[in-house]
Amino acid sequence: MELHELDYFVTIAQLGNITKAAQQLYVSQPTLTKSLQRLEEEVGLPLFQRTGRRLVLTYAGERYLARAKELLSVKRTLDAEMADIRREDVGRLPVGIPPVRCSFSLPSVLPGFRRLHPNVEIRILEDDSEALDEALRSGQVDLNFYNYTAPDPRLEYRVLAHDTIYAVLPQGHPARSQAVPRGDQWELPLSTLAEETFLLQKRTQRQGQYIYELMRRQHVSPRRILETSNIRAAFALAVNGYGAAFISSGLLRHLERDAQFDRYLLAGGPSLDFVAAWRRGSYLPECAQDFIRLMQQA
């Protein structure tokens, strides 16, 4: 077994299809098929079940995948450290980021990163925060960017920005009569919105976790809850009077554009930090440090 065959195996497992994996890896389908056959012969167990064109991991395949990701992560870290010592600019940087944040940040970050590191390949995984944490711990990605709620002792964090969560309501909403000034902004207790439909992100998303925890701490039970992983949809629904959305300042300034709406600080709501995260004790190569710096600027 060679490390490039582990990379083949992980890609097949992620895509569940030999043809798609071959396209992503830029190798021929027969090459990939033979590599998988050699691997299963070496292991002495089937790693996939064949269901039509779909390849589904067996239990042995799931265990092999977990260890393969760990080995490839160690190899990437070693390659990056040696490249930094040699002052080379080569390698691969797998990055995890939630979809909405990805659409706002990467168009400004990636061109600058390419100018600094033209030979470093970026791979992007878009998913919710809990899935990204698991991908980081397992070695599928080396660097995550998301909002931070509670520390994981297996990870390290760097705060890039302090976000504030706002309640978003249509312009002229009656809630204004119950708001109190806070500096140049307006603040509302979450309980004053309990008759509204709460447009919440899912519990696997940081902003969803934030509001559910605030509801628990302040003993607030809204009349209705509509969960959606789509922050853009929640914002649009709130602007059009369907309910109250809860969105961080870092995302809100990209969403507002020409929309007319009211925003309110939430009384008793702490700030929500936007962070870069990586595995504790792992080497952070120069290209990763530059990516973090560019994300902070964005």
Overall description:
Strands 8-9-13-7-12-10-11 form a 7-stranded mixed β-sheet, sandwiched between helices. It has a 5-stranded mixed β-sheet with strand order 4-3-5-14-6, sandwiched between helices. It is an alpha/beta fold and 298 residues long. α1 packs across α2 (18-25) and α2 crosses α3 (29-43). The protein is elongated and about 70 Å long. Helices cover 45% and strands 26% of the residues. It has 10 helices and 14 strands.
Question: What's the gist of this structure?
Answer:
It contains 10 helices and 14 strands. The protein is of the alpha/beta class and 298 residues long.
Structural class: alpha/beta
* Helical proportion, percent range: 40-55%
In total, the number of strands is: 14
Query: Count of DSSP helices?
Result: 10
Q: Unreliable stretches, pLDDT < 50, 5 or more residues?
A: none
Radius of gyration: 23 Å
Percent range for β-strand residues? 25-35%
For the sheet with most strands, the description reads: 7 strands, mixed
Mean pLDDT: 90
Tertiary shape: elongated
Give the neighbour order of strands across the main sheet.
8-9-13-7-12-10-11
Terminal residue distance: 42 Å
Give the SSE string. HHHEEHEHEHEEEEEEHEHEHEEH
